[in-house]
Amino acid sequence: MQYIPKPPAANLEEISEHLRIIEEKISSNELINWAITLKDDSKMIGTIGYYHIKPEHYRAEIGYMLLPGYQGKGYVTEAINLVVDYGFSAMELHSIEALIDPENIASARVLEKCGFIKEGHFKENEFYDGKFIDTVIYSKLNR
């Protein structure tokens, strides 16, 4: 959650409400969310999915999180490539975007490694935790 501009859940009620909203959005085809696991272990080490799916524009936003102990080992790169392939083939997306914190250098590197191009850097376009923050947008076209 270090680079995600929203506070982590403070209690079980907030977690339950968050999961309820996710289930509701999955049911209405507004998002898709998968668990990231190791091939030989079903323990969830992260999440990845499509958020803000815009079928009328053949576009969706990809997002992902990974537990700190599993970062830097190629798991997110592998997951992104699989989810992008799914988006382009099964969902027939034309473009996929990713919005990141400009300080999240590791995420920028992973996106670039997966063929995403930096399209823009929005200055102070969001307000979080009492201050304005920047957002960087990456995207990949189905070519």
Provide key terms for this protein.
3 helices; globular; 6-stranded mixed β-sheet; alpha+beta; 143 residues
Description:
The chain is of the alpha+beta class. 28% of the residues lie in helices and 41% in strands. The protein has three helices and six strands, in the order αβββαβαββ. The chain has helices at residues 12-27, 75-89, 105-113; strands at residues 32-38, 41-54, 59-66, 95-100, 117-128, 131-141. Strands 1-2-3-4-6-5 form a six-stranded mixed sheet, with helices on both faces. The longest helix has 16 residues, at 12-27. It is globular and about 45 Å long. The model has no long low-confidence stretch (mean pLDDT 92).
Secondary structure layout:
Elements: H1 12-27, E1 32-38, E2 41-54, E3 59-66, H2 75-89, E4 95-100, H3 105-113, E5 117-128, E6 131-141
Parallel strand pairs: 3-4
Antiparallel strand pairs: 1-2, 2-3, 4-6, 5-6
Output the structural class: alpha+beta
Number of helices: 3
How much is the average pLDDT?
A: 92
For the biggest sheet, the summary is:
6 strands, mixed
In short:
This protein is an alpha+beta fold and 143 residues long.
